Amino acid sequence: MSAVDGGARRRRTGRPAVHALDVAVLAWLVVPVLPLLVWGAASRWSAPAVLPQDWGWDGWRSAYDGGLVPALARSTVLGLAVAAVATPLGAMAGRALGWRELRHPAPVALVLLAPVVLPPFSVAMGLDVLLLRTGLPGPVAVVLLLVVLALPYTSYTMRAAYAGIDPELEEQARTLGATPRQARRRATLPAVRLGLLTAAGLAFLVGWSDYVVTLLVGGGRLVTAPVLVGATAAGSGNEAAVAALSISSVLPLVLALVAGAALQRRREERA
Amino acid sequence: MRRPVLAVHLLLATGVLATACAAPSAGPAAAPEQSWETIVAEAEGQTVDLWMYGGDERGNAYVDDVLAPAAAELGVTLRRVPVADTKDALRRMLAEKAAGETDGDVDLVWVNGDNFATGKQAEAWLCGWSDRLPHMANVAEDDALVREDFGTPVDGCEAPWHKAQFTFAYDAAEVTDPPGTFTELLEWVEANPGRFTYPAPPDFTGSVFLRQALYAVAGGAEAVPTSFDQDAFDELAPELYRTLRDLEPHLWREGRTYPRDSAALERLYADGEVDMTMTYGPATLTELVEDGTFPATTEVLTLEEGTVGNASFLGIPATAGDAEGAMVVADLALSPEQQAAKADPGVWGQFTVLDTGLLDADDRARFEQLPASDVVPPYDVLSRGADPELSSDWVGPLDDGWRREVLGSGS
Predict the structure, then answer these.
(1) Fewer Cβ neighbours under 10 Å: the N or C end of chain B?
(2) Are B182 and B387 in contact (CB under 8 A)?
């Protein structure tokens, strides 16, 4: 949305300074990733050489041997599980906050923000003993805890989404004869569809990228991609394998983003 | 109207739960007295989760491709959990212990030193089992390296796995006249400014460099009491820190900064920014040279007075859910077949904890037939005049002192 606005403004003014800033921001984001991409196709690359001395796919082979494929599958399942729980919860919270349905919104807003304020490490360390005592299976406890960490993102995204539409919408659907359930499903939810997608995406990322909670609370049952990356990166001479692991954990997300953006553009063009 | 109270309820509920749960009673965990046959029978069908540092590709491959299939033949499924740091395994064990867990997810841990001592202090290890392993018969009774782990008595709480020797390596293409003693090494550093550095303690490798330097300034390992002694510390530490402070301007980047960990130092060496590196796992050198990470001209620096050596172990947490399976794996890992396979530089190159003199001729032959590494000399050469490790009580004060006196001196 904002990218489109920015593009329109830039076209009007056309100042070169803005372009320079764009390029700088882009470079800031992309340049650190370049060595990773090169390492993904290198088997030996030591300074001061600008490019690798030996090219090859060794890193991919050792990443595969180290369990890359099952790790990616576990990450996917974990991300989906977190998104499946955190998105509806976030939608409920976001609706109440965005439509000002609470008498005292401030404490609720604060509680919902708390997990972002606390580092995940301290959350994991504080709750691991407790979750163990509940006797919950490790993977369930991981999802529960990651949902708490994902809630700020989903509820604040949904708050913005609900704030952007008029509560009257649902009332109108009701007066046209819809049940409360129908009104929510057919009128409100489609209107916040983009918000729901964004919230689910963010919640997915929380599960997809977590290391501490997955390992300590999960009790090693869930060797996900980040756990594998962390363990591999702790050693020497593993740059190629780490690059292969990192690229395979980032690439699906980039592709999903591009696909999502393309889909959105098509839908807007059709509208 | 629906209100977003669910999350709040969830948070409140966990709070109530936290206060409602009483701490379980603690006590030393001794393995039940069972015959080995019973243990083997109970182990069948168990899945053993081995938590180990995952940054060593060869170690991972050995466990996955050699040890795990052999365990499967005994009816035990071995699952490797890779961690960035053994402390992650310890955290999980301690949490399980605090929660009174009896079917824990950590069954076996590759451990030694500080992590072992911490776990023992917390009574988090299962004890009194490793002496009963059948293959312990081939470990020398009087081998101090496997009876004590950094000064902490093993007491049957962990089974030896392999030995390691602190090792300096250098690029022979750059260092034409390699030093032969630690003092000569310091002189070499001064004569070749910017070509040497060491990882900042409390990094594991930086920390052992500190202890090696302490032995040197004290005039030998025997001059430093093994268990921590404040008087000895007060007498020896100032000299150690003065030596390292004097060394600082001659280090890489004039000692304004130190490599964060051994991986960072090894990167500097691989990139040719320094001419020497050091490791407590010389087994990795063979592969690093082979795959071209390290220059082909890398050689091991042997010091006349010897270097610090240690052993690493397999420990079983008191909370392990599959302790019998873990014992069977620990015993298997001690078998001459596995120890010889693991010692092969083409497999992992880890030095055996067995006394080959106690083996029968066939098993001894397994070790005699091992191919030699192009880089790393055999253990008996590397460990010549080996110094014992100091007690892990020394490690904290030495590392803290280094931060204060050397890193914080701002010279």
Answers:
(1) N
(2) no
